[in-house]
């Protein structure tokens, strides 16, 4: 078998197609504002009780530290490879491959489970309220086609869709929050949600923080769009920090105002509602107009799926270009300037994983199960990135080294990530959610076997190109 080597292509991704606003909305859409509230707040409230807004606030501060750290690499190493490039360059090519292997549990799989679970929620809402049975799997098939077409057709079309869809979902959820403050439930408007002594238990609050970190995941999704961005060394770091700040404010405010609207004295009713409690709240406020919240949810999941596919396909492209993945993934569409084969493969992955996981563990468990899988996986990747920051600024950019940014923040970030993993496992989640940890462990083991096999068979020519930054570093400021 012929060994993969770096791929020389005449066609490239469309340079300079995206401005700061586009990149910012990619990060926002990748975080999925409406989904981050509508899907996570019932679960987080079941753990942290009335203090779930405080868990979002703590998670926001923790994630901000991680984001500022990653921005230190984004401003010098713009590449479609994202963490693959960052870690290959700052630690080692094998570490970069391993990080990208772990990352395969995130963006390449995200659209599949997200669209399947959204289909399930929509199916239940329509059946309960209108007697209409619209199968979740049909929703998955149709939306996968839409996401695949949008990603294939061009990054500019994807960017425009993300701006429109992102602003729409934010407006709808903010409206629900303001209605909640204007018409508070049992308990009135109060600040109990920010009083840690009101948490049901320390362990419950910690689990709330873990899933709040998951709710904020997505800011790192700007990195693989570097080669299609204007002045990426400035726009990417700004987009990372701005998006974390915007989403932190959004989640804290909306979680507090929604719980206020429901009634802070009835958190048990909120958690045990027969359908998503935010739907019930919307019907209470808006009557038949509640359906707009379902629209916001569908809109959010379509947007995050497009954003995730943008990231996944650029990662496939970068790995195909370097030779660590098959070279056909590096083929660019001559007109649309998108990695066409990577898009086709990613669309098939989305459909297969969405159907497979849902039938295996039950579609109703998809979101919580993959939430824990992704939290564990990202914690490892983020930690590797933090190590990379310290090595990069000590070894290659010593003149720019700043203790707080390039040593203190990365160390704090690694400690935070260890605590996140620990909190996600103690107490051990019930099945099938508890299987998430073993999925990650098995995936890590397989990745190590793949690396060992490449080393033994001497198929590692890709290592010479893994850390390439395709945009000239000579222009670094």
Characterise the protein shown here.
By secondary structure, the chain is an all-alpha fold. It has one domain: Amino acid/polyamine transporter I (Up-down Bundle), CATH 1.20.1740. Helices cover 69% and strands 0% of the residues. The protein contains 18 helices and no strands. It has helices at residues 20-31, 33-38, 40-48, 52-74, 83-90, 93-103, 107-130, 136-153, 155-182, 202-216, 232-262, 267-271, 277-286, 291-322, 340-361, 366-395, 403-425, 436-456.
| Helix segment tally | 18
Portion of residues in beta strands equals under 5%
User: Regions with pLDDT < 50 over 5+ consecutive residues?
Assistant: 1-9, 470-477
Please count the beta strands (DSSP E, at least 2 residues each).
0
How many structural domains in the coordinates?
A: 1
What structural class do the secondary elements suggest?
mainly alpha
| Cα separation of the termini | 43 Å
Estimate percent helicity.
55-70%
CATH topology (fold) name? Amino acid/polyamine transporter I
| CATH architectural designation | Up-down Bundle
Radius of gyration using CA atoms only: 22 Å
Biggest pleated sheet: none
């Amino acid at each position: 078998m012929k060994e993969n080597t770096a791929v020389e292509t005449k066609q490239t991704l469309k340079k300079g197609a995206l401005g700061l606003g586009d990149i910012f909305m990619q990060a926002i859409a990748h975080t999925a504002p409406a989904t981050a509230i509508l899907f996570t707040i019932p679960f987080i409230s079941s753990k942290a009780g009335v203090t779930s807004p405080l868990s979002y606030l703590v998670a926001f501060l923790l994630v901000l530290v991680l984001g500022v750290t990653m921005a230190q690499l984004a401003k010098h190493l713009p590449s479609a490879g994202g963490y693959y490039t960052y870690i290959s360059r700052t630690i080692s090519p094998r570490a970069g491959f391993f990080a990208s292997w772990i990352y395969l549990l995130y963006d390449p799989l995200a659209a599949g489970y997200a669209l399947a679970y959204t289909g399930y929620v929509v199916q239940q809402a329509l059946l309960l309220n209108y007697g209409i049975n619209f199968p979740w799997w049909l929703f998955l098939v149709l939306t996968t086609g839409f996401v695949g077409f949008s990603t294939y057709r061009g990054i500019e079309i994807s960017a425009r869709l993300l701006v429109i869809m992102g602003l729409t979902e934010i407006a709808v959820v903010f409206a629900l929050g303001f209605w909640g403050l204007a018409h508070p439930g049992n308990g009135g408007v109060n600040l109990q949600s920010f009083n840690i002594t009101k948490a049901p238990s320390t362990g419950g609050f910690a689990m709330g923080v873990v899933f709040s970190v998951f709710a904020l995941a997505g800011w790192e999704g700007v990195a693989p769009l570097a080669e299609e961005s204007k002045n990426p060394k400035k726009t990417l770091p700004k987009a990372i920090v701005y998006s974390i700040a915007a989403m932190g404010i959004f989640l804290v405010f909306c979680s507090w105002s929604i719980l206020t609207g429901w009634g802070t004295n009835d958190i048990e009713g909120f958690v045990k509602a027969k359908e998503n409690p935010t739907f019930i709240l919307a019907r209470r406020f808006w009557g038949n107009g509640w359906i707009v919240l379902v629209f916001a949810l569908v809109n959010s999941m379509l947007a995050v799926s497009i954003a995730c596919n943008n990231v996944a396909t650029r990662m496939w492209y970068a790995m195909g270009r370097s030779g660590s993945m098959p070279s056909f993934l590096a083929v660019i569409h001559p007109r649309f300037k998108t990695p066409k084969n990577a898009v086709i493969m990613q669309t098939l992955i989305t459909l297969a994983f969405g159907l497979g996981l849902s039938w295996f563990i039950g579609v109703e468990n998809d979101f919580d199960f993959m939430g824990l899988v992704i939290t564990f996986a990202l914690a490892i990747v983020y930690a590797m990135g933090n190590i990379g920051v310290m090595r990069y600024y000590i070894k290659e950019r010593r003149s720019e080294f700043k203790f707080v940014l390039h040593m203190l923040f990365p160390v704090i970030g690694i400690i935070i990530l260890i605590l996140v993993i620990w909190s996600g496992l103690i107490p051990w989640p019930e099945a099938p959610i508890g299987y998430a940890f073993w999925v990650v462990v098995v995936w890590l083991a397989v990745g190590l076997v793949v690396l060992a096999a490449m080393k033994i068979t001497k198929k590692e020519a890709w290592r010479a190109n893994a850390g390439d930054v395709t945009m000239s570093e000579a222009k670094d400021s």
